[in-house]
Structures are given as C-alpha cells and as structure tokens.
Amino acid sequence: TWKWVVGPMFLYLCERLVRFWRSQQKVVITKVVIHPFKTIELQMMKKGFKMEVGQYIFVKCPAVSKLEWHPFTLTSAPEEDYFSIHVRIVGDWTEGLFNVCGCDKQEFQEAWKLPKIAVDGPFGTASEDVFSYETVMLVGAGIGVTPFASVLKSVWYKYCHDATNLKLKKIYFYWLCRDTHAFEWFADLLQSLEAQMQERNNADFLSYNIYLTGWDETQATHFVVHHEEEKDVITGLKQKTLYGRPNWENEFKTIAGNHPGSRIGVFLCGPEGLADTLNKQSISNSEADPRGVHFIFNKENF
User: Where is the FAD-binding FR-type domain (predicted)?
Assistant: First the structure.
C-alpha cells in the first residue's frame, strides 16, 4: 500500500510548497470599488503576474482567516496593468473581507490601511479558447457572468488595437439572472461596450440578450409602465431585458442559420442543469457533414 500512497503524497506536498511560496509573494491592493448590491471589486498588482481571459485565482486574507483560501474568477483583461476580482458579500468570509477593506466606513480609506492579500494562481479554464473561434456563444447564469467580463474586455481591447488580425468576428452573449440587483455591476461594462461599438459603427459585433428569470407583481407592473422608454429600465441599455428563460432550440437554430459551415464555440459558466441542456443542443444542432455547422461545447460549473 505504501508504494501507492508515497507518490501521490509527494506530489501533494510539492503542490502545497509551491502554493506556500506563491502566497509569500507581495500583492498590492491598488483600488477597492464598491458596486451595488454588496459587491466589491479588488484591483491588485503582483510582480510577474500573467493571466489569460477567464482564468481564476485563489485568495487568502490573513486578517479574516489565516487558513482559508477561496477561488475567484479574474474580471480584468490581460491588457490591463492590474488584475481584479469581484466579490459578492454572501457569507462570513466575504463579510469579513468587506469590513477589513473599510467598505463599511463612509470616509476615504488610505491605501496603507488595506489588508494584506495572498494570491495563488492564475489557473486555466475553458474560457481561454474563446479566441480560437470566429463565432462564439457566451452563456452566464447569475454570478457566472464574471469570466465573461474578462473575455469581453479583452476582446474589445484587441478589436480596438488590431481588428484585422482578430479571428473572433461575432459574439452572442446570454446572461440569465433571477434578481434585478445582480444586473447592476455588470451593466456598467455592457453600457460602455455598447456606446463604444456605436461610435465605431460596429454594433453587430456583440449581440447580447439579458434574461430576468424572477420577478414579483410590483416589479412586473413597473416594467410594463416603462417598457416604451428608449433605454431599459433595469440595465440602462438600449437592448431591452427579456423575461423568462431562452428557448435554446430556437437560439441554436437561428445562430446555425446565420453562420453555415462554421465551428461555433459555446461557453457556459453556470449550473449543471443548464450545462446538460446546452450540451444536448450543441450535439443535436451540429451537422454530420464535416463542412457543416458544428457547435463545440465548453463549460465551467459552480
């Protein structure tokens, strides 16, 4: 038995030593941004840190807990001079991080008062393959939209810098969310992208659909009253929020008709049930002919 145990244990100890060494490298919090609905953004810098779109890191804050490591998806783009994560306050550890960062205080916080942070990573995910396709479908459910913040930022930087060498030509973005408050922090990014694309006369580059899957009677009445306004009452975008869940079969057939003979990447960050649905649709809507349309499914579950 010991022959089978020693090898894995040795690899495990090596991994722990590497994590300990990486956690000792200095990380500087350059900015803390408070977003609506108790979501904070930590912008950080670390010497030698290199990332790709959609990757994630493990974060430890000794001021909150000396042993706990928590995974967070990077929401910054590789082209930016910092890396960032968005943290939604939903438990004891995140509540503690919120407090030690001074977010519970009204006055401005000095940078030297911010807590020490240890970072391990980044680690790869399926989202890194976005730039391997000419057409992609990005599907985020709830807080699963965070990797696509990094993707959309990076795509836009690459598009503005050198659009001719960018293989990616069309993005279909879907965001499913139960609560209207969860739209608030991410809608700012979409508003910026929407305005910049219109300035460059390329509004068709990004096609996005936002679905609200939960609402009450009071909210429904408010939505109806303001439905005719130029901008959406929830997100402030020109694209109106849709209510309910997407008809995935229709969506796949429409995209397949728009891009015949293409390899289309389908990227999901969401629950297992939605992953099963999208995987089945990817298979059923792919043609047997190698020259036909093919949907390639990639997922990250939470």
Answer: 19-129
